[in-house]
Structure formats: structure tokens, C-alpha cells
Amino acid sequence: MEPAPRPPGLIQRYREELQVRHYARRTVNTYEQWLRRFLRFHQLRHPREMGSAEVNAFLSHLAVERQVSASTQNQALAALLFLYRELLDHDLELEGVVRARKRPQLPVVLTPEEVRAVLQRLDGVEALVAGLLYGSGLRLIEALRLRVHDLDFSRHELMVRDGKGGKDRRTLLPERLGAQLRGHLEEVRQVHRQDLAQGWGRVMLPHALGRKYPNAGVEWGWQWVFPQHQRWRDASSGQQGRHHLDPSLIQKAVRRAVLAAGLTKPATCHTFRHSFATHLLERGQDIRTIQELLGHSDVKTTMIYTHVLNRGPLGVSSPADLL
Fold it and tell me: Mean pLDDT, consecutive 10-residue segments, the chain of 323 residues?
């Protein structure tokens, strides 16, 4: 008689519960790391043996000893709240937690001339992605997760699906990138056709989408705009496909371009998004419109970019089209 299989451990159950609730893969990995740090901090005691006091002690340790930012402490808190409320069915009392101090910081913003200098030192796919970060106000992961059917060349707009906070939104598609994007998509389509001919045309889809659209993984509209050069392969099933580009490739390319341009500002990929919002405000665009383009839930978040406000009936065009 074979022994009964061992029940899944705490961390596996925690991951599965996050995945069932459709948390993003990056969020699942981040929350797992916070759970592991919490357990190590308390000498690997089981969470059922602990409660509010131990959670408060860990969060206070992060603020006082580790001196983490307020957003980092809030991330750790969210991971532990999910553990106790959703997995262990236990409410936490958070009175007495030493909260990390929120350090007011203005975002790094490049001038249009500095943006041009950086973009001119990028080539190929890296230049296209960076152009969208600035011209559309995208986060890096939002740009890399774009699928072919998210681009609307006739309306000069693109759709960001399942962005931060699980929200969809529409934003600008710069006209100046249209011809380059079309040429790039033709190359991607050729690769997709070759993959299909070899029986490996599938791209990765979120689990819920894969169930709803079983054939979507091989359809052209569902393909990544920026796919990896190499196919992924599942060792257990032998199935192959393509994921989108790794963010680190773009981050390194932008860093090299910033250094080559001789900029002293600590500019990163996210700096293009800050510059997008600031340059629109400087040109008199309405802050509520910019809030929608950026996908901010609260206009207070967008207000950090306020330098010039001139509300009026002007239409919105991408700042990339003025370079």
C-alpha cells in the first residue's frame, strides 16, 4: 500500500491561494519573500502560533532597524494581511506598529532635450520600448506585456490591460513610432509563422485567460509585441512557447544610454513616465486627463507632477511627437 501523499506546505498553499485570486506572478513571488522573511525573523515558528504582536514586531523591525520606506513596509503588511485573513482566517490588530517615515521625494524628470539625447543612443527593440515609456507614459512591465491587439494605429492609442491595481486603461500611441512599430511587428509575425510551422507558436497567457480562450495562445492578436528571442520550454511536458522580453534587458540598455548621453541625473526607465506627465502639464494639458493616461486612482498622486496647470479644451497629443 502506497503512503498517502503529503499535504502541501504553508508556502505552497499561500502561493496557490494568491494564484487562485489572480494575483500577478511578480506579486506572488514578492509576497512569498515577505512571508519567508517573517518566518525567519521569528525563528520559523508557524504563523498559527503567532498573531498581531509578532506581525507588529516584524513591521516595527523593518521601520526601525532596516529603515525601509513606507511603501516597502506597506508591501510587507499586505503580504501578511493576506496570509492571516485569507489563509488562516484570523484578523490582525495593528495598533502600536512603528510606521516607516514616508520620505517626500520629487520624481527625476528629464528635459525634452535630455529625453532626445537618451533615445538617440538606443537602437532596435530597446529604442521602441523606451519610446513607448516616454511617448505613452507606460511603466516598463506594461510596455513589455503589450500584445498585438492592444495597439490601435488608426486611433493612435493603445490599451494597457491589467495594469497596476488590476486596472485597464487607454493611453496615447505616438504617431512618430507608428512606422517603426509596424516594421517591428512584421518581423515578429515572421517569427510567429516559423514557430507555428514547427508547432511551437504558443505565447504565455494568464491562467484565467488560457481557460477562457483556449486557442488564444497561437492567434496573432494575442502575441507579445516584444517577445523573447528564445522560446521557453516546460521540462515536464515538453511544451514550448515565447514569453515577453526580460525587463533587465531594457533597464541595462537605458542605463548605458544615460551614461553615453553624459547625464548627471539618476535616470531610469521609470524616468520616462515621469517626464511624460511633467511635459504634458508644462504644455497645459488637464491634470485629470493626465491622471487617466497614467492610470492613477487618485489625482493626488498625479499632483506631484504639477509645475504648470492650464485647464482648457486642448486635445491631447503625445510629447514624443514634438521631439
Answer: 59 89 85 94 92 90 87 90 89 76 78 96 96 96 94 95 84 95 95 82 58 66 90 68 89 97 95 94 89 90 66 57 76
273 is catalytic: yes
The 10s digit of each residue's pLDDT in 261-300 is 999 999 999 999 999 999 998 888 889 999 999 999 888 8
Residue 207 a catalytic site member: no
How confident is the model at residue 92, as a pLDDT? 82
CA 288, CA 217: separation in Å to the nearest integer?
36
Give yes or no: 164 in active site. yes
Answer left, alpha or beta for residue 268, where phi above 0 means left and psi between -120 and 50 means alpha.
beta
Residues 6+ apart with CB under 8 A from 282: 307, 308
Hey, what's the cell of 257?
544610454
Which residue among the candidates 139, 242, 274, 279 is catalytic per the annotation?
A: 139
pTM, full prediction: 0.72
Per-residue CA distances from 43 to 49, 82, 88, 106, 238 (Å): 12, 21, 19, 39, 40
Active-site option among 42, 164, 170, 255: 164
Residue partners of 268: CB distance under 8 A and separation at least 6: 108, 251, 254, 255
Closest by CA position to 269, among listed 259, 279, 255, 282: 255
Catalytic residue chosen out of the listed positions 149, 170, 270, 283: 270
Q: Give the three-class secondary structure for 159.
A: strand
What pLDDT is stored for residue 41 in this prediction? 94
Q: Is 202 a catalytic residue?
A: no
Q: Out of 202, 273, 274, 279, which one is annotated catalytic? A: 273
Beta bridge partners, 227, equal 244
